[in-house]
Write a structure and sequence with these properties.
about 15% strand; Rossmann fold
Length: about 400
């Protein structure tokens, strides 16, 4: 069965879960065409992503002007379809954060995407994230009648559901994937009741590189190393973590914090580290490959994620799968996987003292307590987030007429 995956940027360091999903579907005899808007020149540090890049076709590789011939070809052959798509793009521009001109560009992208999919013989297109990539496949449906589905992760979609016209995107879709029950509930808020049945829970999953059936033994290091994985931005809460970690350092010098990632808030974070004399205890890696992330997880005593807004981070699943205990916040879909003091430590978001207490409670665990948490964590993630099981569900929805 020939299908197309359409992503805003692919491959990308933080989107290894999309790669896993594509490769797992190919094992189920899907012939998958990869199309993205951008990503041909992105900095990536993973050999698997390099291979994926060679398989991906890029709509904007030669600029927006290169889309025009595809538009005029469609206009001559399908003037009424173009008009319907144009009116839909106009409606989508209402309340949008982006001007009507951007939505016209989405229409041009849909024209080229349609030609690429028809040449390939695609019978379905799946997009990740309910943002502009889903608008493009929705507009493309007016031109090709190829059905589409999309996966919603959050939190971006839930921050601006009216601006993104989530309701309209759900209405015109074949089905929608929500990565957690919480995610599905938020989509219920904006979808018509008759469309609720379209919204399916498909978890992000891990492959055999993580789920090997072997649970690591617990370790208690002399210097406890905490690892925080994620883009350096407001919603990830790294500044709050540093404030909490500063208090921990004041009473325990045998601790270390690694911030694995990069982003717009790096200057502010570096300034805080320097002003509070934390440079001996805190380091920032910048963007690193998925293999480097995995190695850091294996080297670290615990992963900590103090986020203010999330979907359900794949990094949490990866940590649980390889025996690295997780400390995170009670938000969004995280408590669906993490259970406090059973397979993880959970603490309220935005609470410096609670974050500090969670780190201290983790440090105070004995070997038996730590072993129980690690074992429970592996059982939870291997049961709930196996990519082969989750893509079987996705495949069934795609195949249904």
């Amino acid at each position: 069965m020939k299908i197309t995956y359409f992503i805003n940027q692919y491959p990308q360091v933080s989107h290894t879960f999309i790669r896993r999903e594509i490769l797992a579907l190919e094992k189920q005899d899907f012939n998958i065409q990869r199309v993205a808007l951008r990503g041909w020149d992105a900095d990536i540090a993973d050999n698997s992503d390099e291979e994926e890049r060679t398989k991906t076709e890029y709509l904007l590789l030669h600029g927006v002007k290169s889309l025009l011939p595809y538009f005029f070809k469609r206009l001559l052959k399908q003037p009424f379809s173009i008009m319907r798509a144009f009116l839909s793009a106009y409606k989508m521009s209402k309340m949008s954060e982006r001007s009507f001109a951007y939505h016209i560009i989405y229409l041009l992208e849909a024209c080229k995407l349609g030609c690429i999919m028809e040449s390939f013989g695609s019978v379905h297109v799946h997009a990740h994230f309910g943002t502009n990539s889903t608008e493009v496949v929705m507009l493309c449906k007016y031109l090709t009648a190829i059905p589409y589905s999309f996966t919603v992760h959050g939190p971006e979609e839930f921050d601006k559901p009216l601006s993104l016209h989530l309701k309209e995107k759900i209405t015109h879709s074949k089905f929608v994937c929500a990565i957690t029950s919480y995610c599905r509930s938020q989509l219920f808020r904006w979808a018509d009741y008759e469309d609720w049945s379209k919204i399916k829970i498909i978890h992000c999953g891990l492959d055999d590189a993580f789920l090997q059936g072997k649970i690591p033994s617990p370790k208690i290091s002399l210097v406890r190393q905490f690892l925080c994985i994620g883009r350096l931005c407001e919603q990830k809460g790294q500044l709050l973590l540093l404030e909490s970690f500063k208090s921990l350092v004041e009473v325990n010098k045998n601790v270390k914090l690694i911030l694995a990632g990069d982003g717009g808030m790096r200057p502010e974070i570096e300034l805080y580290i320097n002003e509070n004399n934390l440079s001996e205890h805190v380091s920032i890696t910048g963007w690193i490959s998925s293999n480097e992330v995995k190695n850091l997880l294996l080297e670290s005593d615990a992963m900590i994620l103090p986020s203010f807004a999330e979907g359900l981070p794949v990094a949490i699943m990866e940590a649980m799968a390889i025996g690295t205990p997780v400390l995170s916040t009670y938000i969004a879909g995280i408590p669906e996987l993490l259970i406090n003091r059973q397979n993880s430590f959970l603490f309220p978001a935005g609470d410096v003292e609670a974050t500090n207490l969670a780190m201290q409670e983790f440090i105070d665990l004995n070997v038996d307590e730590l072993s129980l948490i690690i074992n429970n964590a592996y059982t939870s993630v291997s049961t709930r987030h196996n990519i082969n099981i989750e893509t079987l569900k996705l495949a069934e929805h795609i195949r249904q007429g």
